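Cross-check.
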Amino acid sequence: MTDTATRPDPATAAEGHTSRRSFMTLVRVETRKLFDTRSSKILTAILVTLGLGSVAARGLVAGPHFFTLAGTSAIAFGTLLPVLAILTMTGEWSHRTALTTFALEPRRGRVLAAKCLPPLVAAVLACLLGLLVAVPVTAAVAAAQGVPADWQVAPHTVLGWIAAMVILTAEGLAMGVLLLNAPAAIVIYFSAPILWSAVGRLGHVGEVLAGWLDLNSTTNPLMNGGMTGGELARLATSALVWIAIPMAVGVLRVSRKDIG
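Predicted model, tokenized:
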């Protein structure tokens, strides 16, 4: 009777183990997953190489203008960071590890939240890296051309640029969790700007729709350092359509999905 009374119930023990697993532990696990796969490593290497290479190459053409050079890295970052985010969300299903992941942490919402943080932080760090690399490139170009360097940049312009990269990365997360299929999500992400460009040429109605729903266009004022009330409303609308709604539907889908 003593052994029976003191023996812990398996369900209670599992519940206690789950409750002791902190959210930051999940974040660290998902961060490791983000860079563990071969595709993620290759993509990260390409992202850094193209981002930093574009800063140096632009210096030869644009001259020693600090933020112009730093902003050039956004071409690579805005293209590849969302892809990295998509792979983060779809990796459990493409590598067939979802059963293990959700068995160790049954609260799927916490896992998805932990998956979102590393790509968003990576977007911020990538922008900071672009700014950091632009400093010596600007100085070197100014010295080589014998002209003064242009270091002027408004803080809100830098913050808006970083925010735009974070928003585009969040779009990748939303597409990934909604579709749970990397090829489909990547195709939709890259096809959307082409589609909206075509819609914008279909007359006044098409132009209005593209102006309100094309997330790539509505983030431009952020990267340009200025945003009016109307532009903020357009950005909020496009973010609702391309980030908030797909993310909500995707989370609901994952929470109900059978992982047999």
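The chain has 13 helices and no strands. Confidence is low (pLDDT under 50) at residues 1-19. Passed to J.P. for a second look.
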